[in-house]
């Protein structure tokens, strides 16, 4: 679930690149628009679960949307991760406080803020000097993901 109005769609691009590397065909029917909120994650998951061949895993654009996805899945009587695995992004506090604890991608937000400040100062001094900086991320494996169910 992603929201294309947010920036240039980097999270969707990353999702597509991950699928490509894994040899999995991109299916636009499996992408549901959202607004980085719990409510939009719930609504997007409802749409995905209504598909004739619903997904066995959901990668949400952020942890709030992932929490909404878990609620939508459970309200249908399905289990996380038994029927559907859920992964979020950002490793916000909600990821550790919901049940099951959310698998998510942690970003070094403090370092990102510091680097953004450095690049901003460079760009102020010389308009051509600012640059895109890549920072490391880490997958935080928790209980919301598991093997795909047999179909």
What does this structure look like?
By secondary structure, the chain is mostly helical. It is built from five helices and four strands; from the N terminus they run ααβαβαβαβ. A two-stranded parallel sheet has the order 1-2. Strands 3-4 form a two-stranded antiparallel sheet. Strand 1, helix 3 and strand 2 form a beta-alpha-beta unit. It comes from Luteimonas salinilitoris. Pfam families: Peripla_BP_3. Keywords: DNA-binding, Transcription, Transcription regulation.
What order do the helices and strands come in, and which of them pair?
Layout: H1 10-21, H2 38-49, E1 57-59, H3 63-75, E2 85-87, H4 94-97, E3 104-106, H5 109-125, E4 138-140
Parallel strand pairs: 1-2
Antiparallel strand pairs: 3-4
Helix pairs in contact: 2-3
What's the short version?
The chain has 151 residues and is mainly alpha-helical.
The chain-level mean pLDDT equals 91
CATH architecture of the domain at 10-107: 3-Layer(aba) Sandwich
Low-confidence stretches: 1-8
CATH homology-level superfamily of the domain at 10-107: Response regulator
- Major β-sheet strand ordering: 1-2
Number of strands: 4
The biggest beta sheet reads:
2 strands, parallel
Beta-strand residue percentage: 5-15%
Distance between the termini: 23 Å
Helicity range = 25-40%
Indicate the CATH class of the domain at 10-107: Alpha Beta
Class based on secondary structure composition and strand pairing: mainly alpha
Shape: elongated
In CATH, the topology of the domain at 10-107 is named Rossmann fold
Rg is: 17 Å
Organism: Luteimonas salinilitoris
Keywords: DNA-binding, Transcription, Transcription regulation
InterPro entries: LacI/GalR-like_sensor, Peripla_BP_I
Protein name: Substrate-binding domain-containing protein
């Amino acid at each position: 679930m992603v929201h294309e109005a947010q920036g240039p769609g980097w999270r969707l691009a990353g999702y597509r690149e991950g699928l490509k590397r894994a040899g999995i065909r991109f299916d636009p029917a499996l992408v549901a628009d959202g607004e980085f909120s719990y409510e939009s994650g719930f609504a997007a998951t409802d749409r995905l679960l209504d598909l004739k061949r619903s997904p066995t895993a959901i990668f949400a654009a952020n942890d709030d949307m992932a929490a909404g996805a878990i609620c939508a899945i459970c309200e249908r009587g399905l289990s996380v991760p038994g029927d559907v695995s859920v992964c979020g992004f950002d490793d916000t506090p909600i990821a550790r406080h919901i049940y099951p604890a959310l698998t998510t991608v942690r970003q070094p937000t403090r370092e990102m803020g510091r680097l953004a400040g450095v690049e901003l100062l460079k760009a102020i001094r010389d308009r051509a000097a600012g640059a895109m900086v890549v920072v490391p991320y880490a997958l935080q494996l928790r209980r919301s993901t598991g093997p795909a169910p047999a179909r």
